[in-house]
Amino acid sequence: MSDPILVTGAAGFIGYSVSKKLLEQGERVFGIDNLNDYYEVSLKEARLENLRPHNAFEFMKIDISDKDAMEKMWAEKGPFKRVIHLAAQAGVRYSLTNPHAYTASNTTGHLVVMDLCRHTEGFEHFVYASSSSVYGANTKLPFSVKDPVTQPISLYAATKRSVELLSESYSRLYRMPQTGLRFFTVYGPWGRPDMALFIFTKAILEGTPLPVFGGGEMKRDFTFIDDIVSGVIASLHAVPDEEVPHRIFNLGNTRSEELMDFIRLIEDATGKKAEIEFQGMQKGDVQQTYADITESRELLGYNPQTTIEEGVPKFVEWYRNYYGI
Fold first, then answer.
1. CA-CA distance, 46 to 35, in Å (whole number)?
2. Tens digit of pLDDT for each residue in 23-32?
3. Distance (Å, rounded) from C-alpha 132 to C-alpha 289?
4. Is 187 a catalytic residue?
5. What is the mean pLDDT of residues 180-195?
6. 275-278 and 209-212: which strand pairing?
7. Domain coordinates of the chain in residue numbers?
8. Does domain 5-257+281-323 have CATH number 3.30.160.160?
9. Which of 16, 38, 94, 156 is catalytic?
């Protein structure tokens, strides 16, 4: 049997979904998460309950920024030679009010995990989550991994760019194989309550006012969770060579969708009309995201399949079932 893959943030939306798919593919998974209360912990626990029946899954509650605890875990449960690092403090808007949570989890936590990998003999591959937020104030569309990313407009984006730079330096110093993945607006069943689809669906079903920022004129490259998972796992198997040990890929849907079209699909799926309250742009938000996935297609075989017309109803169905609505 193969060595376990360490998945950080295993109780999170993407971490859970990746872990589930790895287990279905016959892999062993050791998941860690600090189960913080950024959003309802019960949802994180429910995700874990779906993973626990698998004999090949083991979980430990731990904070990745706690260096001593992580070293102890690594010594007792590892060493791990393949790591999918998805743990992070998420959310652009929350970074405006609680910035220290981002430097602790995203920057320090990344360094702690990466350094443990660096000291592991025969280490194979470190795959980590970045974000489309790193493109910040860029106006050239679609966003390409070849574009400069020097204008972050949120602390969240700045921490995500910082982890890319940390990984670049470690790869150059220690020839450590690493792959960074810039996710574009991930949505789907078991999603995060702070994300647009979750917020919009909840408001529409409850008949409460729905705040729509940017006057409803924003556009997003909405990417269904199954497509993200396929990209993450493909990247794990596509280990960079020693000559170029660090690579970055965009994982998006290659469609920049109108926000109001997205809302109309939720209305169709719920059978209810939204009570919209248009508001201005919030600090840290960008007008549009749009992924160029040329490199992801060529080097990972990444090929997103799910349109928002297919994906939004799947989420609404999950939401109704989960909350009994």
1. 12
2. 999 999 999 9
3. 7
4. no
5. 97
6. parallel
7. 5-257+281-323
8. no
9. 156
DSSP state letter for 223? E
Backbone φ and ψ of 83, nearest 5°: -130, 130
DSSP string, 112-155: HHHHHHHTSTT--EEEEEEEGGGGTT--SSSB-TTS------SH
* Cα angle for residues 36, 39, 44 (degrees, 5° grid): 70
The token pair that represents 130 in the structure block: 């970045």
- Given a contact cutoff of 8 angstroms between Cβ atoms, the answer to whether 323 and 202 are in contact is no
Asked if residues 19 and 29 have their Cβ atoms less than 8 Å apart, the reply is: yes
Two structure tokens written together for 111:
């360094």
Exposure class string for 205-244: b at 16+ Cβ within 10 A, else e: beeeebebbbeeebbbbbbbbbbbbbbbbbbbebbbeeee
- Taking residue 145's Cβ as centre, other Cβ atoms within 10 Å add up to 19
Inform me whether the pLDDT recorded for 215 exceeds 80: no
Confidence category of residue 95, pLDDT binned at 50, 70, 90: confident
- Which ranges in 25-78 belong to alpha helices (H)? 41-51, 67-77
237-263 pLDDT, tens per residue? 999 988 889 999 999 999 989 999 999
